[in-house]
Amino acid sequence: MKVTEHIKKANGKTLFSFEIIPPTKGKNIQELYDNIDPLMEFEPPFIDVTTSREEYVYIDRNGLFDRKITRMRPGTVGICAAIKHKYNVDTIPHVLCGGFSKEETEYLLVDCHYLGIENVMALRGDAMSHQKFFEPSNGGHHYACDLVKQIQNLNKGKYLHDVIEADDKADFCVGVAGYPEKHVEAPSLNSDLKRLKEKVDAGADYVVTQMFFDNSKYFEFVKEARNAGIDVPIIPGIKPIAISRHLQMLPQVFKIDIPEPLISAVEKCKNNKEVRQVGIEWCIQQSKELMEGGAPVLHYYSMGKSSNIERIAKAVF
Ligand SMILES: Cc1cc2nc3c(=O)[nH]c(=O)nc-3n(C[C@H](O)[C@H](O)[C@H](O)COP(=O)(O)OP(=O)(O)OC[C@H]3O[C@@H](n4cnc5c(N)ncnc54)[C@H](O)[C@@H]3O)c2cc1C
User: Is the CB of 75 inside a 6 Å radius of any atom of ligand 1?
Assistant: First the structure.
């Protein structure tokens, strides 16, 4: 079922969902299942699976370094299929512009359609680690908006080079990213919202937000998005702080602020066990308030570890 249909069917009840990341290459999928198992009692209607960008690795060949390109966490669509069939739950692959040509994206979407995957998350992806700014791959899209257009074309039966007459059209429900604290490259929140509106006008059916720790940022974002004419569901993405290093890491990686009371609560902790407890309590409060404020779904960034999400879900759902 489509995300928008799940939301409609819930009739105002807030749903629980979460995001997982594929294992690193060479690791077994069992650890992923072990982390999903305890979360299934909260009946997630859908689970997101991220896609990692390719990166360069340098292999030492007797002092001469050979540069190779690799994807450290491959398998997004395969994992979506495995989870969908194991748990009978909708799965959502993240589809990136970065690292893919339009043709490769088309093949990936064809795979998804054959597998009965009805939702995809359309994302640009970040710059590669050696790049200062995002550069599209050869023959790839520059912005998520262009990817949304490709997916919507496929929904109309329009393939890239129009060599075939499609009689089996895809019907993907498309999610896109939104940033309550603005995307790092956007000159202002207002201009970022205009870009978000372009994605919705191109056919995005719902928005999932970047993580935030101050709910007022989400509520204000939803208000501004509505003022800008964005009328699709806006799903908050949240994450519990789990280690003290998150205080530096999360703002650096995701360009978000951490509220002062949360910083001081973490700084008072003697070890990461205490930090984890603080993170869980903060996230429970955040979740309850978002629920009261009418969030359609609470979408948790699990980063592949479920024990803290399980405790939060137990207290909230
Ligand atoms: C919910 C969620 C899930 C994510 N999952 C993944 C994942 O699985 N894998 C991964 O690698 N990354 C993931 N990301 C990170 C995401 O790829 C990065 O944040 C990326 O930098 C931007 O992606 P986007 O889809 O928002 O890009 P876009 O919507 O294309 O926007 C990128 C920037 O360009 C600007 N912009 C847009 N259109 C134009 C235009 N026409 N002209 C000029 N500027 C423009 C926007 O304002 C923004 O600053 C995720 C992010 C979120 C919020």
Answer: no
- Give per-residue pLDDT as tens, 40-66: 999 999 999 999 988 888 888 888 888
Cα-to-centroid distance, 270 and ligand 1 (Å): 37
Whole-number Å distance, alpha carbon 144 to ligand 1 midpoint, is 6
One-character DSSP codes across 208-223: EEPP-S-HHHHHHHHH
Please tell me the total number of residues recorded for the chain in this structure: 317
Task: For residue 127, give the ligand 1 atom closest to its CA.
Answer: 21
Q: HSE on the CB side for 115, CA within 13 Å?
A: 25
Active site residues: 19
At 188, list the tokens: 């202002």
Q: What is the pLDDT of residues 143-202, one digit of tens each?
A: 999 999 999 999 999 999 877 777 888 999 999 999 999 999 999 999 999 999 999 999
- The label of the residue with tokens 């030492």 reads 60
Nearest-angstrom CA–CA distance, 239 and 237: 7
What are 79's two structure tokens?
A: 């994992």
- CA distance readout (Å), 161 to 38, 144, 166, 222, 244: 45, 20, 12, 38, 51
Q: Which residue has the tokens 């496929």?
A: 154
Distance 126 CA to ligand 1 centre (A): 7
* Whether the CB of 254 sits within 6 Å of ligand 1: no
Per DSSP (E only), the strands in the chain are 15-20, 46-49, 55-61, 64-70, 90-96, 119-123, 173-178, 206-209, 234-235, 237-238, 297-301
Name the residue among 288, 152, 299, 160 with its Cα closest to residue 236. 299
**Could you tell me if the CB of 53 is within 6 A of ligand 1?**
yes
Q: How far is CA 266 from CA 109, 217, 309, in A?
A: 43, 21, 18
Place of tokens 């093949």: 107
The C-alpha atoms of residue 201 and residue 250 are separated, in whole angstroms, by 31
Stated pTM of the model: 0.97
Task: Return the C-alpha torsion angle 140, 69, 121, 203, nearest 10.
Answer: 0
